[in-house]
């Protein structure tokens, strides 16, 4: 088990690509036990010089779009090209156990058996957007372990698309045709975040529907403001089941990386993401510290009860809480 005395040895094993060491390091980083915080911080600080060399990809999409089938077909293509692939699969959390419900290793059997692949199911733990609070740090561990491509798969509901788009280099939206929600996908702003839109299940009787849907998305992209000046988002099609179209998708991803790297934009994006991550973590820690104070916690719940009973408006409740903070902590 990872502890203070063997931390250096674990880092060495992690750097050599040992999957057991990577898995145990991830378990440590995910732990919320107070006794593990200092050690996980030391671990992350030690590996930082070895991070940043992987291509970070985010994959999201509506339920039933075939994300796991796509990731397996795409991941195997990369492995056949000599690359090491890590998948961080953010699953919905069980309301009972808190663990992952879907268990992506059981849905990506070929990829999970590959020596050059690593799959880590991560429960969303109720975190906003369905993306694990520690997903960014798990990516860093994968990079330190020598993985060339790190894919973050998310549940594709709520604000998960925004969460993933803010932690990866290239954000991929996986869609299907004929489901009746093509226009909904355009309306909810997915077009503004996606660097690539991939329409899966381009096979059998569905091929005509895919062609129509592709035209709809391409038309919409031409009237929307670009996310980056250097890149015009593309719409591609594939059949993950038949393992067709994967090479074209990989080429498009490389074109995206080259376009943004040539101007230094990719480096700027990563720097901004790191700043945003620190800001969000700081806000969460500040709230945690605030509610750990018994006097504020009591006053907050008292105010909450008054708002619930219609004795106060929410605006007045907020004003009273603000005045309480100023009087007790900021003056």
Summarize the structure.
By secondary structure, this protein is α/β, with parallel strands linked by helices.
Report on this model:
- By secondary structure, the protein is α/β, with parallel strands linked by helices.
- The protein contains 14 helices and 7 strands.
- The chain has helices at 7-15, 19-30, 34-47, 67-80, 109-113, 135-144, 160-165, 182-187, 190-193, 207-221, 246-262, 265-291, 294-308, 314-328; strands at 55-61, 85-91, 117-123, 149-153, 170-176, 196-200, 234-237.
- It has a 7-stranded parallel beta sheet with strand order 3-2-4-1-5-6-7, sandwiched between helices.
- Strand 6, helix 10 and strand 7 (234-237) form a beta-alpha-beta unit.
- Helix 1 crosses helix 2 (19-30), helix 2 (19-30) packs antiparallel against helix 6 (135-144) and helix 13 (294-308) runs antiparallel to helix 14.
- The termini are far apart.
Secondary structure class reads alpha/beta
Low-confidence stretches: 93-103
Largest sheet: 7 strands, parallel
Q: Determine the fraction of residues in helical runs and give it as a percent range.
A: 40-55%
